[in-house]
Design goal:
heterodimer; A: 456 residues; alpha/beta; Rossmann fold; six-stranded parallel β-sheet; 22 helices; 10 strands; B: 205 residues; five-stranded parallel β-sheet; four-stranded mixed β-sheet; 4Fe-4S (chain A); iron (chain A); metal ion binding (chain A); 4 iron, 4 sulfur cluster binding (chain A); iron-sulfur (chain A)
Chain lengths: 456, 205
C-alpha cells in the first residue's frame, strides 16, 4: 500500500484544492465549537460518555449476550461474524433467502470496511448507497473520504459533471439545490423499487435489545419502512448498556460531528415491523484484539462522529484518501494500525501530535497519545522506513556526544545561512518540503545561558 | 454461525480487562448540572427554527386548521392525509392502506407526535412499524401535533419518558430532512420531508 506521505504529496500538488479542503473542514470544526458552547455541561457529558464506553469494553461478552437475548425476545434474528468475509456471506444468504434483487443501504462505515457492495454486486444484487455523499462516491466508484461527509473532497462542478453523465442532469449545472433535488427524485425511485434495506448501527442497547440509527436525510427510515426486510450491520463495540445512556450519546454525537444539536432523524428499532423481518449482524473483525490491548483499548470508545478528522491539521491538508483506510484521520490511523500494522505503518506518523483531536473527542479517547504509542510499536516491529531509521540513528549518535552536538550546531548556524537553496532544500530534507526552515539563531541556548545566567 | 458466536465470546471472555464502573446517570451531582430553560416551549420553538423547522403554539385543533390554511405548502398540496380527528382537510383515507408504497404521492401528512425536547428541537414520534410509519418519511411535507404540556428540557428527561416494550419503532424528528453533502451547502429536503411544522396544542385533541 502506498504510504501516507506519498499519497498526501499527490493531494497537495493542487494547492488551491488543498486549501479549499482545509477550509471546508475548518468550517465544520467551527460549527462544532459553536454548538458545544451552548451546553455548559459539555465536559461532564464527555466524561460520562467515556465512562460508559469503558464499561462496555470491560463487559463486552456479558453485554453482547444480554443484547442478543433481549433482541431475540423481540423477534430479531441475531447473527455473529468473525470477519468481513463471514459478514458478507451472512448478509448475502439472508438476501438470497428472500430472493432480493435490489437493496437500498443507508450509510454504514462497517459495510465499507467489509467491502459489502462489490461482494453483493458480484452475486447479482443491486445495492444503492442512499446517503447523498455516499451515493456520489459510489457513482464515482470510489470509497468515502470522510466518515460523516463522504464527498467532502469533491467540488460541486465535478458532482454536476458526474450527475450529467449518470443521471442526465443539465450540463454545467452545479447548484447544490438543483443537484440534490435531482438526487432526491432518482433515489426516491430506488427506495420504491427496493426489496430490502440495509443500515448501519450507531448504538445498540443491551438492556432493551434495540438499536439506533442516526441520519439527516431520512434515508435509513425510507429504506426500512418501505421494505419487509431490514438488515442492520454493527461492530461489537457499538453496544451501550442502557437506553438512558443514549441521552448522553445523542447529545454529543451530532454536535461533535457537524455542529447540529441532534441529527434530523434518530431512529430507534425494537423488533421487526408486523409481517416483516429484522436481522442484525454482529461483527468482530479485529475488534476483540483491540479490546485486549491496554494501550489501544480506548480507541473502541469511538462513536464515529468525525470530529478528530475535522480538526486534524494533517487530515485537513492531506485528504481522506491519503490514509488508504476505511476510517481516515486520527482515529483511523489508530484503528488502521491495529488492523494491519504493516500495511498501515505510515499512518501513526501522519500526525503532528498537536492533540487537537484529543481535545474535541466526545468520548475522550487520548488519540495523540495512542498515535505516539503506535510509533514506538512500529519501530519495535521493525516497520520504520530506512530514511526514518537512519536519521533517528544519526540523531541518537549525535545526541550522545555533547561535544559533537555543540560543534555541529555551531557549524550549522554559521554555514547554513550562506548555503545555496539546493543544498538545504533537497530530497534529504523531508521537513523542508512545502515549508521554509526557520532562520538560524545567532547563538545556541547553551551560549545564551552562559552569557545571561551562569555568571550570577 | 453458532461457531462464530462461541469463538467471539470465548475470545472476549479469556481477556482480563480491568473492570470499570458504570456511571449512575440519575445521581444529583449530574442531574443538577443539566441545562434548564426559563421557557422550554419558546426554547423549543427557537431551536426548531434554527434547524429550519417551524413551531406554532396554538390553543386547539380549530386553530391548527386556521394556521394550516395559511401555510403556502399546505395550500399547494393535493394529496393530504391526517391521523388527527377533525384536523386538516384530508383527501386520502389511510385507514385501509396495507402497502406503504401507496403513500408515495402524499403531499402533506398531519401526524401525532408524543413530546418535544427543548435543547435540540426534536419531537419524539412512535409507531408499531406498520405502514403508517412510512408517512413520517415519505410525505413531502409533515405537520406534527403535540400537546403543549409535553415539552421536556433535555434528552435525559426525554429518556425518562421512553419505554421500548410495546412499540417496535420510534424516532426523534428534528426539523425537515436535509443534507450538506455537496460542498457543505445546506439543502432542505433530501429524501424525507421538505418541511416540518410542529404544532404545540394547548387543549386536548
Amino acid at each position: 500500500m502506498p504510504s501516507h506521505p506519498k499519497l498526501a504529496n499527490e493531494f497537495v500538488k493542487d494547492k488551491e484544492r488543498a486549501k479549499w479542503h482545509d477550509q471546508s473542514l475548518w468550517f465544520v470544526r467551527s460549527k462544532r465549537d459553536k454548538a458545544v458552547h451552548q451546553l455548559p455541561e459539555w465536559e461532564l457529558l464527555r466524561e460520562q460518555a467515556s465512562k460508559i464506553k469503558s464499561y462496555v469494553v470491560s463487559h463486552l461478552p456479558d453485554l453482547l449476550e444480554e443484547f442478543e437475548k433481549n433482541a431475540k425476545a423481540k423477534g430479531v434474528h441475531v447473527h455473529w461474524a468473525r470477519d468481513a468475509k463471514e459478514h458478507n456471506e451472512i448478509v448475502h444468504s439472508i438476501l438470497k433467502q428472500h430472493q432480493v434483487k435490489r437493496v437500498v443501504k443507508s450509510k454504514s462505515m462497517l459495510t465499507e470496511e467489509c467491502h459489502l457492495n462489490p461482494y453483493l454486486e458480484r452475486h447479482g444484487i443491486e445495492i444503492v448507497d442512499t446517503d447523498l455523499g455516499e451515493w456520489i462516491v459510489q457513482l464515482q466508484d470510489k470509497p468515502p473520504s470522510h466518515i460523516v461527509m463522504p464527498a467532502i473532497h469533491i467540488k460541486k462542478e465535478e458532482i454536476g459533471e458526474l450527475f450529467h453523465e449518470k443521471l442526465g442532469t443539465e450540463k454545467g449545472a452545479s447548484d447544490p439545490q438543483y443537484l440534490t433535488e435531482s438526487a432526491r427524485q432518482r433515489l426516491r425511485q430506488k427506495f420504491i423499487e427496493a426489496d430490502a434495506g440495509i443500515t448501519g448501527v450507531n448504538f445498540a442497547i443491551a438492556d432493551t435489545g434495540g438499536f439506533v440509527v442516526c441520519t439527516n436525510e431520512g434515508n435509513a427510515d425510507l429504506g426500512t419502512s418501505l421494505n419487509k426486510l431490514h438488515i442492520a450491520c454493527m461492530g461489537i463495540e457499538k453496544l451501550i448498556p442502557r437506553a438512558s445512556d443514549l441521552s448522553v450519546f445523542l447529545r454529543l454525537l451530532a454536535r461533535s460531528a457537524t455542529g447540529q444539536p441532534i441529527t434530523t432523524y434518530s431512529s430507534h428499532f425494537h423488533g421487526p415491523a408486523p409481517d416483516s423481518e429484522l436481522h442484525i449482524v454482529l461483527l468482530d473483525n479485529g475488534r476483540s484484539e483491540i479490546a485486549d490491548s491496554d494501550e489501544f483499548r480506548r480507541s473502541l470508545n469511538c462513536i464515529r462522529c468525525g470530529a478528530c478528522m475535522n480538526t486534524c491539521p494533517v487530515y485537513r491538508r492531506s485528504g481522506g484518501y491519503s490514509y488508504s483506510n476505511t476510517v481516515p484521520g486520527p482515529i483511523g490511523s489508530i484503528l488502521g494500525a491495529a488492523h494491519d500494522t504493516k500495511a498501515n505503518s505510515s499512518l501513526p506518523f501522519a500526525c503532528s501530535l498537536c492533540a487537537s483531536c484529543t481535545d474535541v473527542c466526545p468520548v475522550k479517547i487520548d488519540l495523540h497519545h495512542q498515535l505516539l504509542t503506535w510509533r514506538k510499536e512500529i519501530r519495535l516491529k521493525g516497520l520504520l522506513p530506512l530514511s526514518k531509521r537512519l536519521s533517528m540513528k544519526m540523531m541518537s549518535w549525535m545526541m550522545q556526544a555533547p561535544r559533537l552536538y555543540q560543534f555541529v550546531g555551531k557549524m550549522a548556524r554559521k554555514i547554513v545561512p550562506y548555503l545555496p537553496r539546493f543544498l538545504v532544500y533537497n530530497p534529504f530534507n523531508a521537513w523542508g518540503k512545502q515549508r521554509e526552515l526557520p532562520d538560524m539563531p545567532k547563538q545556541s541556548f547553551r551560549e545564551w545561558m552562559k552569557q545571561n545566567h551562569d555568571r550570577k | 454461525m453458532t461457531a462464530s458466536r462461541e469463538a467471539i465470546l470465548n475470545k472476549l471472555r479469556k481477556q482480563s480487562i480491568p473492570e470499570t464502573e458504570l456511571p449512575d446517570l440519575q445521581q444529583p451531582e449530574l442531574t443538577q448540572q443539566w441545562i434548564t430553560y426559563p421557557d422550554p416551549r419558546q426554547q423549543f420553538s427557537d431551536l426548531l427554527a434554527s434547524i429550519k423547522g417551524l413551531c406554532l403554539q396554538v390553543k386547539n385543533v380549530e386553530e391548527v386548521n386556521q394556521r394550516l390554511a395559511e401555510l403556502p405548502v399546505y395550500q399547494k398540496s393535493n394529496n393530504i392525509c391526517s391521523l388527527i380527528p377533525d384536523c386538516g382537510q384530508p383527501t386520502v383515507n389511510v385507514d385501509d392502506v396495507t402497502d406503504p408504497h401507496d403513500f408515495k404521492d402524499i403531499d402533506f401528512a398531519i401526524l401525532p407526535g408524543e413530546f418535544c425536547v427543548a435543547e435540540n428541537g426534536a419531537t419524539w414520534i412512535t409507531n408499531d412499524g406498520g405502514p403508517l410509519r412510512t408517512l413520517y418519511f415519505l410525505s413531502q411535507h409533515v405537520a406534527l401535533l403535540v400537546p403543549a404540556s409535553e415539552v421536556v428540557p433535555h434528552m435525559h428527561a426525554a429518556y425518562e419518558k421512553l419505554h421500548f416494550e410495546n412499540r417496535s419503532f420510534g424516532t426523534f424528528m428534528a426539523g425537515p430532512s436535509k443534507t450538506a453533502d455537496i460542498e457543505q451547502s445546506l439543502v432542505i429536503g433530501a429524501h424525507g420531508a421538505r418541511s416540518l411544522t410542529v404544532f404545540l396544542v394547548e387543549e386536548p385533541f
